[in-house]
Design goal:
Blueprint lengths: L24 H33 L4 E4 L3 H12 L10 H11 L3 E9 L3 E8 L2 E6 L5 E5 L4 E4 L10 E3 L5 H14 L1 H6 E6 L3 E6 L4 E5 L2 H13 L3 H4 L2 E5 L7 E5 L9
Parallel strand pairs: 1-3, 7-8, 10-11
Antiparallel strand pairs: 2-3, 4-5, 5-6, 8-9, 9-10, 11-12
Length: about 260
């Protein structure tokens, strides 16, 4: 009696999808990875575009330095030839560039003045002498005993000539610093400093000479001498002074001006 009749499908009976329509676990993970990669790429693109725009917005257009006018002009020349967008105007980069291109600078501090400015503070080297190398190049020596640049053609510098191997420059700088702080007059009169087997020879104008021992005594002796020869009874005459003995100093008055002693 029931032949040929098709049973109706119950409403709560699920229809199964063909196996080919069910995504595999690998396909699901791949789609998830693709979404993540797309999100990361979009973020990077936005970051790049935004960073590039910000880099241009923060480009340096002006700066101020506390350097003297002649040095400020040199700083202007260096910076005016540089790319000064935000990335290339980082403080450490500018400081290194200025120190490299302007050897007369001992130290540089650069601070950003947002959005487009720089504040530059500098410390200049203090030249205390001249030194000639074995190729005949005469260079300036600073207060630390560092040889920092060659003397320019036509540049006139009234500083003592340091006639000695380079290894002595740091030691002689201490002597010259003391002399300069004790008596700017005698520092100006100093024409050259030499070394021999016993110590230092300081030659001054009018044939005056001070002989100093090596070591810490030299610094002590030059400070004391610069004070003594300023006193009235000493200052009107010219002297050849030997302070190399531990307990005795020998002083000899130079009767005739002009001769050059020692060296």
């Amino acid at each position: 009696m029931n032949k040929g009749k098709v049973k109706p499908i119950r409403q709560n009976q699920r229809r199964l999808k063909p196996k080919a329509m069910i995504p595999s676990r690998w396909q699901v993970k791949w789609k998830q990875s693709l979404v993540r990669i797309s999100a990361i790429l979009l973020s990077l693109i936005l970051l790049f575009v935004g960073g590039r725009a910000l880099n241009q917005i923060l480009t340096v257009t002006h700066w101020h330095s506390d350097a003297p006018s002649s040095m400020a002009k040199k700083i202007d020349m260096v910076l005016s030839t540089q790319v000064l967008d935000f990335w290339h105007s980082r403080s450490i980069r500018i400081e290194q560039k200025l120190l490299q291109d302007i050897p007369d600078l001992a130290a540089v501090t650069v601070q950003r003045d947002l959005p487009n400015g720089l504040n530059i503070q500098v410390r200049l080297r203090q030249p205390i002498g001249l030194w000639e190398n074995d190729r005949g190049v005469v260079s300036l020596v600073d207060e630390q005993g560092e040889v920092y640049r060659a003397l320019k053609q036509g540049e006139n510098v009234d500083l003592p000539m340091l006639r000695m191997p380079k290894k002595y420059l740091k030691k002689v700088s201490k002597i010259l610093n003391i002399l300069h702080s004790s008596s700017s007059k005698w520092f100006a009169l100093n024409s050259e400093i030499l070394t021999d087997s016993l110590g230092w020879k300081m030659n001054f104008n009018h044939g005056q000479q001070w002989l100093l021992p090596f070591g810490v005594k030299a610094v002590h002796n030059v400070a004391l001498l610069s004070q003594i020869v300023e006193e009235y009874q000493w200052s009107e005459r010219q002297w050849h002074i030997n302070t190399r003995m531990s307990h005795h100093w020998f002083l000899r008055e130079i009767k005739h001006k002009g001769g050059h002693l020692g060296g």
